[in-house]
Give the backbone structure.
Amino acid sequence: MPLELLAGWGRTAITRTELVEPTRESVANHVRSGNSLIARGLGRGYGDCAVVAGGKTVSTRQLRSLRVDGGSIEVDAGTSLEEVMKFALPQGWFVPVTPGTRFVTVGGAIAADIHGKNHHRDGTFGSHVEWIDLLLASGEIRRLTPGDRLFWATVGGMGLTGIILSARVRMTPVETARMSTVNQQVKNVDALMDMMVRADYEWRYSVAWVDTMATKGSLGRSVLSTGEHATLSDARVKGDPLAYEPRQRLTAPGFVPSGVLNKWSVRAFNEAWFRKAPRKAKKGLESITHFFHPLDGVAEWNRIYGRNGFIQYQVVVPDSHASTVPCMIETFATRQVPVFLAVLKRFGKANDGMLSFPTTGWTLAVDIPAGVDGVAGILDEMDERVVGEGGRIYLAKDSRMNPRHLASMYPRLDEFRSVRDEVDPSRRFMSNLSQRLGL
Ligand SMILES: Cc1cc2nc3c(=O)[nH]c(=O)nc-3n(C[C@H](O)[C@H](O)[C@H](O)COP(=O)(O)OP(=O)(O)OC[C@H]3O[C@@H](n4cnc5c(N)ncnc54)[C@H](O)[C@@H]3O)c2cc1C
């Protein structure tokens, strides 16, 4: 079979792999073929989790079917959240958790146990899954429920327990496909963190975009967005209340030369973005797409980072070490790291996935062009601090962390490995991520 070059969304570490796209009937043949394998959904993981060098990368995009049954959906794993929403929203059901893009598959959402802007209320995607049909290394298909250890090794297990074929997921009832929102500028990170703690009680969804280039009294100035699903009683809802018609208006031009995103261009962008937001709290009515998936308006936006690609660095620190958030932002600001997008969110209680990322506290995610001088060392220092404080790095975004941190970050790693020993003793399922980190 011809080999293909594949990477994650950050476009670093491009890898040669055999890409196959089986049907539900033929997928087990690949598992029986003896090669090492890893499942791949829409490749929105930023790093190297959804590709295996020298093995078979199994695209799940032929596995697509969907039906709504009461308040749940039964869905094949290659179905995207966009497809789920197009189908279920007109019937009054929304996905329980959505990431910042609708172009992820249900399989990818379970395997990374994704979180959204509502983690403080609703937990991760995995906490809404009723069962999973998993194709094991033996070729057997097993139905897993939350009472099974293998279920919680698979939720957040980064595809390393087998191929998720389908799942049943509880949905969120909504009266409209609009969001009732409040957006506002916040003068600095201290004020922001106070407001976000309060927002946990007042809002189902909250997220902040942070300017990591601003300094002094404006350190961490931000735009805070909070929202709830609008109800039919909202007089601003006009037309078909459940209409959902997401569009991609633009496609990013070819690769922008590396270096165009530098501290000057990023500072100018941040200034414009901050000024565009209302100075005082402003109520609005937004579409689902505008509120949850603004980046999806531009197809292939990852190309703006140039051929070198970019790193997304996402960590969580516990509430007891909340002061680490302003310290990290200060480091980016004083060392003039061109962080193009920085997002701060709250996490509620930790979930049951053995390798799930969220744990109670603060999560900061930043995008940095790859290859910027000095950044590797800065992130290594941050890793040390985050690990020392009981925090962790998100595996779905990682492409660079030192494997020696893994066991401290993920204290249930041994339990995860023992489940893998039972279902895949010869480690047929592996990815570049699992090999790099010795998972
Ligand atoms: C713009 C953007 C915003 C994002 N925002 C968020 C966010 O807010 N919150 C968040 O949690 N994540 C976020 N992400 C990350 C994304 O949600 C996850 O990486 C998700 O796993 C991607 O799904 P995918 O279908 O593209 O999976 P892929 O990237 O193809 O794969 C991701 C992992 O899932 C495994 N996998 C995929 N399908 C299966 C399957 N059928 N069976 C077993 N394993 C499988 C792969 O092996 C791999 O380990 C964001 C990504 C982007 C690009």
About this structure: The pocket of flavin-adenine dinucleotide is lined by residues 9, 38-45, 49-50, 60, 77, 99-101, 104-105, 107-108, 111-112, 114-116, 158-159, 163-164, 295, 396, 431 (CB under 6 Å).
